Amino acid sequence: MWSKNVTINNGVLTCSGISATALASEFKTPAFFLDEDDFRTRALHWNSELSKAFGPQAGRVYYAAKAFICVEVARWIEDLGIGIDVCTGGELAVALKGGIKAENIEVHGNNKSVDEIEQAVAAGVGAIVIDSLFEIERVAAAAQSAGKTQRVLLRLTPGIEAHTHESIATAHEDVKFGFSIASGAAWQAIVETKKHASLELRGLHSHIGSQIFQTEPFAIAADRLIELLAKFNSEFGQQLPELDLGGGYGIAYLDNESEIQASDVLGTLAKVVKDSCAKHSLNVPKISIEPGRTIVGPSMFTLYTVGTTKVVTLENASTRNYVSVDGGMSDNLRTALYGAEYTAVLANRESTAKKIATRIVGKHCETGDIIIKDIDFPADVIPGDLLATPATGAYGRSMATNYNHISRPPVVAIKDGKARVILRRESIEDLLRLDI
Ligand code: LLP
């Protein structure tokens, strides 16, 4: 759960040798701390495992920017030589500002605006992943008026019920994303795309959902995409060169969980892809993936300061300690939105006190403002104590809001014993900036 440079000794959490107390006093709380070394290692690991599994047919790792992106992290991505997946004009702007080469950018979205499409075409992005019949026309028109041939992939829905929260499963039939393979919509999209001289169909894409631990659904999706490659081959007498199998690899949030291993899932995928291609007499296409959470999730932790504690008596006469921290659902929406489970540790000192039933809550004006619903936590936690929550890097800061006019926390990168702000805390001036 914790990034590689985090240690907890005698109750004191340190990252790359800097104590939680020192971090809190320099950067204030709440704040996200990003272990740079851990992030880079994870990104490179997925990249090398992709190469190991697919050899010369390894495509690209496209880091999913939606998990977390800022300009500095975009610079790291460029430096690491991997690609990026963006799904809005905003994410595209950050990626370009960070110096990521346009050819290494893939553009997603189920409802890209014409402006966003035109920006992507003008920037010269490596691929636009088309999600609807309307979009085929829009991307073709944008490319034609720019005098370019735009490389595109088609996002397909392989009809899989992935075992994850319903809000983040994306590959069953009843979803807004992609073209269904089973209904024939995918084939229709292929035929429509082929009609446009300004579009170069590079391949097919699927993303089956997020926080998935089984390898099988990834393998089934790949198999279904390859069946369609075979149909394409027999109808058009040529082979599409690329398959992008998306992201969605699960990570550990709790002590008893363990993340999906790149070597396992990519090894299985490689076998399925090779067997399936052999069955259909196809060459193995280039295989790309889009991990987000598994790269940045465990690389970050959040530090909070306790403001109040309150013991309440429940109906069955048992008690619960409510520990209120200085953030909440504005920096971690995942508990409220998906019933996600997190853990936390006291980060500034050792406690030998008994652990009691505790709920860690934020400072927002609603009961659902919960960071951790049920945790056994030391009974002697007091105002001023620091709490650290691991694995908050993915969909934490990126889904942060200004609810109750709270300013969003900073992201502080830590490397080689040095900590520096890479995304600063919002100020009251920032919050007032938009008011007319
Ligand atoms: N590729 C596509 C096309 C995606 O839609 C996503 C995530 C990814 C890649 C990266 O998935 P990852 O490897 O990070 O699981 N806010 C939710 C997650 C939404 C995921 C949306 N798409 C959460 O906090 O769990």
Automatic annotation (TrEMBL):
What's the cofactor?
pyridoxal 5'-phosphate
The Orn/DAP/Arg decarboxylase 2 C-terminal domain extends over: 308-393
Query: Residue limits of the Orn/DAP/Arg decarboxylase 2 N-terminal domain?
Result: 41-296
Q: How does it assemble?
A: Homodimer.
Q: Which residues carry this modification: N6-(pyridoxal phosphate)lysine?
A: 66
> What pathway, per the record?
Amino-acid biosynthesis; L-lysine biosynthesis via DAP pathway; L-lysine from DL-2,6-diaminopimelate: step 1/1
Q: Could you say which protein family the record assigns here?
A: Belongs to the Orn/Lys/Arg decarboxylase class-II family. LysA subfamily.
List the lineage, top down.
Answer: Bacteria, Bacillati, Actinomycetota, Actinomycetes, Candidatus Nanopelagicales
Coiled-coil stretches noted in the UniProt entry, renumbered to this chain: none
Q: Which GO terms describe its molecular function?
A: diaminopimelate decarboxylase activity; pyridoxal phosphate binding
Database matches in PANTHER family: DIAMINOPIMELATE DECARBOXYLASE, GROUP IV DECARBOXYLASE
Instruction: Indicate the transmembrane segments per the record.
Output: none
Q: Which Gene3D superfamilies match?
A: Alanine racemase, Lyase, Ornithine Decarboxylase, Chain A, domain 1
Instruction: Keywords in alphabetical order, please.
Output: Amino-acid biosynthesis, Decarboxylase, Lyase, Lysine biosynthesis, Pyridoxal phosphate
Per its database record, what is this protein's job?
A: Specifically catalyzes the decarboxylation of meso-diaminopimelate (meso-DAP) to L-lysine.
Q: What is this protein called?
A: Diaminopimelate decarboxylase
Q: Which reaction does it catalyse?
A: meso-2,6-diaminopimelate + H(+) = L-lysine + CO2
Which species is listed as the source?
A: Candidatus Planktophila limnetica
SUPFAM superfamilies found in the cross-reference section: Alanine racemase C-terminal domain-like, PLP-binding barrel
- InterPro entries in the record: Ala_racemase/Decarboxylase_C, DAP_deCOOHase_LysA, De-COase2_C, De-COase2_CS, De-COase2_N, De-COase2_pyr-phos_BS, Orn/DAP/Arg_de-COase, PLP-binding_barrel
Tell me the active site.
Answer: 365
Top-rank taxon, per record: Bacteria
